[in-house]
Amino acid sequence: MANRIFLFLMLAIVALPALAQQDTAAYQLRSVEVFGKPAEVYAAGSRVTTIDSAYRQTYNSSSLADALQARTPVYFKSYGVSGLSSVSFRGTNASQTVVLWNGLNIGLPTLGQSDFSTLPLSGFGDIAVQSGSAGAAYGSGAIGGAVLLSSPNYNGKGFGLELQQEAGSFGRYFSNGNINYSSGKLQLGLGAYLRNAENDFTYKDLSRFGKPKRTEEHAAQKQYGFTQNLNWQLAANTKIGLHGWYTFADRELQPAMGSASGAEQLDKNLRLMTQLEHESDWGKTDVKLAYFKDFLNYTNSSLNSVADVQTYQLQTEQTYTKGENWSLRGGVNLQHFIAENDGYAGTKQENRAAVFALFRYDPTETLDLSLNLRQAFVEDYNPAPTPALGFNWKFYQHEQHQLFLKGNVSGSYRVPTLNDRFWTGAGNPDLKPEQGWSEEAGLRHLFIVGNTLLLETEATAYHMLIDDWIQWAPNPTGLWRPVNLQKVRAMGIELSHQLTATIGNLKLTGSAGYTYTSSEQVEVYEGQGDKGNQLMYVPLHKGVLATGINYKNWQLHTDLNYTGERYTTNSETSHLDSFILVNVALSKQLQFRKSRLVVAFRSDNITNEVYLTMAYHAMPLRGYTLSLRFLIP
């Protein structure tokens, strides 16, 4: 039944263009330029998507995990509402995805991944997602994909102010404030947010006979954070930027059904960055110097574990652009880690370096090419060079129709984490880096009617092979240790559909996405393994559907998320059922001279779906949220 509902809604949104063509009122659509998106300049042939501003304004209190789960067909595995939230791109695991902030990797070197539940949606500028291997551009860990975050830019002149207060079901409260000033030479922005949640929702206890109803009593959380962004035009050709980002999260970790409670986790993350940009006859020089401090304290009835990691990063880039035909960027990235962890025998330090060259060439108006290469240098390791070659070719254009053929071949790698190598009694210093190759090809179709309609459809097929996949597994004595256990093949199909149209005063937006993902072991180097089986927590089918209706000062948004069946073991002996989540939001904008007040009412999981993303970790049923946002100008 869930599958039929999802397919019906997908067909419904496809029918919207026919309705939209009845009116040709002028509306300025976003420009259609492949070269125009910064994330795509050196990623020809790759699949890049963005989180639209309308969604971010409506769901500003959500985490980055919520946003990506709702608007992209990637899969997130969450240990309940207050636990770790990790991502899976194209059948890979969380440590095979990188998260970059203003171009620098913010992943923890101890764990090799980011907890998306602690990354707030507020405080960012653009949010882009690149699917597939991107090791040549972004370095270690960019095997399955990359999430690209940037600080906001403040356009216009004068002061701006935003205040938001939100209250919702299960004791959820959110407060947010941003103030900014912009002049000809100076841009300054300060932001702060506070999120409190009791998370005392009712759920069905699947671990008990008869599935009795219970109330969650150990999932409360408190999060707050600050952002600071300064851009100063020192001279006509020189600009300096100072960016700061601090997040704090104090959480009761939601226990599995039937388990005793008591675990808690405290996270403190400080990220500071200075950026210098200079234009000259040699092109654009970009120097970034950053300091990150990540603190984690996990406690339960018998354990108190502390991890404190400092990261120093320096990245220099030189970009030379020749007209509109080609651009060459060369650079160096240096990293220094200092990690103190109760699981290590003393403080661990490590140096990493990489040199890279990114080349973009457009020989004609219809053909775009990119060629990238990165060489990494890591203590005690010797990663192979990582290349990437991609193209976009517009091979057909007639009236309102444009057709593109795209493709790329790219390499990737991942250096073992500090925990993999240095955990006392279990770490394995003999681990090899993971090495991967990815190929993808696709078709993209654009249908444009003046400034009133844009319909974009894309289909992509991909194949990925990852060797020396690192996995923690028990040895013959029962001790769990990380080993290069297997070779994994992931392949699949991705479909997407986006619409923007107008009918008089009515603006319609819609997007749909579907992925079929097969991810399985093809070789096992130690033990018997589970060759030929779908990897655990990788759904074969995943889809999203979003619609937006904007009429004068009213907005209606809907989001549908379909997740197929997932196995909870690599032996395929147990599974989680498929589910559909539907969220609906209605907002009204009130104008007071130059100021605006936005009143929004939202319902999450409006169909009261019972679902799990991680075995025996309950998720909330239907909830409601009321939000007030005041904006100047």
TrEMBL record:
SUPFAM superfamilies named in the record: Porins (SSF56935)
TonB-dependent receptor plug domain boundaries: 45-146
Secretion signal, residue range per the UniProt entry: 1-20
Keyword Transit peptide: no
Compartments in which it is found: Cell outer membrane
Domain of life, per lineage: Bacteria
Pfam families, per database record: Plug (PF07715)
Gene3D superfamilies from the UniProt entry: TonB-dependent receptor, beta-barrel domain, TonB-dependent receptor, plug domain
Keywords assigned: Cell outer membrane, Membrane, Receptor, Signal, Transmembrane, Transmembrane beta strand, Transport
Subcellular location, principal: membrane
Membrane topology: Multi-pass membrane protein
Keyword Lipoprotein attached: no
Family assignment from sequence similarity: Belongs to the TonB-dependent receptor family.
Stated name of the protein: TonB-dependent receptor
Species of the source: Pontibacter populi
